[in-house]
Amino acid sequence: MKTAVEVSNVSMRFNLSSQKVDNLKEYFIKFIKRELKYTEFWALRNVNLSIEKGDRLGILGLNGAGKSTLLKIIAGVLKPTEGSIVVKGKIAPLLELGAGFEPEYTGAENIYLYGAVLGYPKDFIAEKYNEIIEFSELGKFINVPLKNYSSGMKSRLGFAIATIVEPDVLILDEVLAVGDAKFKKKCEAKIQSMFDKGVTVLFVSHSLPQVQKICNKAILLEKGEIIAVGEIADVSRIYEEKTS
Ligand SMILES: Nc1ncnc2c1ncn2[C@@H]1O[C@H](COP(=O)(O)OP(=O)(O)OP(=O)(O)O)[C@@H](O)[C@H]1O
């Protein structure tokens, strides 16, 4: 079996501001006077994980357990405080669609911008440009600034750009919003076709039935630490015990 994703000793620290700063001026004054106080908070602690090629891994855990933080680190959106990540092949992070969009630029311009954020070369985006527009069904709105899009339109464009590669690793969030029911169906069909090709999947969800339907393996996170890892049936049992 080949490894698709290797997470080694990953820890993530956030500095939680423990006081209210009302404006930028106040922030700078407090900053210079060294009056800013932070509480250190470790959202992930010493996470080690090896995901085999073709595995579909569910990430389970209560609110605040660190699930999204782990996915963002694997997707390269967040840099871990400690540890390292290796991802083999192309990755399609379907997390916060369009988080890298620029509101003042048109949809067409954002295809290049967001494509660059996802690490696609310019030539590749140019080649796939029409396909992206076609999938997004934005028609003439593609030349309108993003600030005039509805949230559904933004996520449609985000999905169309993020799935233009044939990914080796697909990162999915249960709460992924991709527009109306009709467009959602089209996205689900696209995701299913990636599943059929044997893509490696990382899936975050609070719905155990949904995780059981999609995944063969799972991990259970608690307060930033992995407390169970293995076959979906075994981890489900532990998760049910914890949540009942
Ligand atoms: N940018 C940030 N700054 C400070 N704290 C953060 C930041 N992002 C996440 N956290 C904290 O890290 C912890 C883990 O958050 P994360 O979003 O990974 O949890 P989760 O398991 O995905 O939760 P949920 O099920 O509620 O979506 C939380 O306590 C959260 O408050």
Automatic annotation (TrEMBL):
<dbReference type="GO" id="GO:0016887">
    <property type="term" value="F:ATP hydrolysis activity"/>
</dbReference>
<keyword id="KW-0547">Nucleotide-binding</keyword>
<dbReference type="InterPro" id="IPR003593">
    <property type="entry name" value="AAA+_ATPase"/>
</dbReference>
<dbReference type="GO" id="GO:0016020">
    <property type="term" value="C:membrane"/>
</dbReference>
<dbReference type="InterPro" id="IPR050683">
    <property type="entry name" value="Bact_Polysacc_Export_ATP-bd"/>
</dbReference>
<keyword id="KW-0813">Transport</keyword>
<dbReference type="GO" id="GO:0140359">
    <property type="term" value="F:ABC-type transporter activity"/>
</dbReference>
<protein>
    <submittedName>
        <fullName>ABC-2 type transport system ATP-binding protein</fullName>
    </submittedName>
</protein>
<dbReference type="InterPro" id="IPR017871">
    <property type="entry name" value="ABC_transporter-like_CS"/>
</dbReference>
<keyword id="KW-0067">ATP-binding</keyword>
<dbReference type="InterPro" id="IPR027417">
    <property type="entry name" value="P-loop_NTPase"/>
</dbReference>
<feature type="domain" description="ABC transporter">
    <location>
        <begin position="19"/>
        <end position="243"/>
    </location>
</feature>
<dbReference type="InterPro" id="IPR003439">
    <property type="entry name" value="ABC_transporter-like_ATP-bd"/>
</dbReference>
<comment type="similarity">
    <text>Belongs to the ABC transporter superfamily.</text>
</comment>
<dbReference type="InterPro" id="IPR015860">
    <property type="entry name" value="ABC_transpr_TagH-like"/>
</dbReference>
<dbReference type="GO" id="GO:0005524">
    <property type="term" value="F:ATP binding"/>
</dbReference>
<dbReference type="Pfam" id="PF00005">
    <property type="entry name" value="ABC_tran"/>
</dbReference>
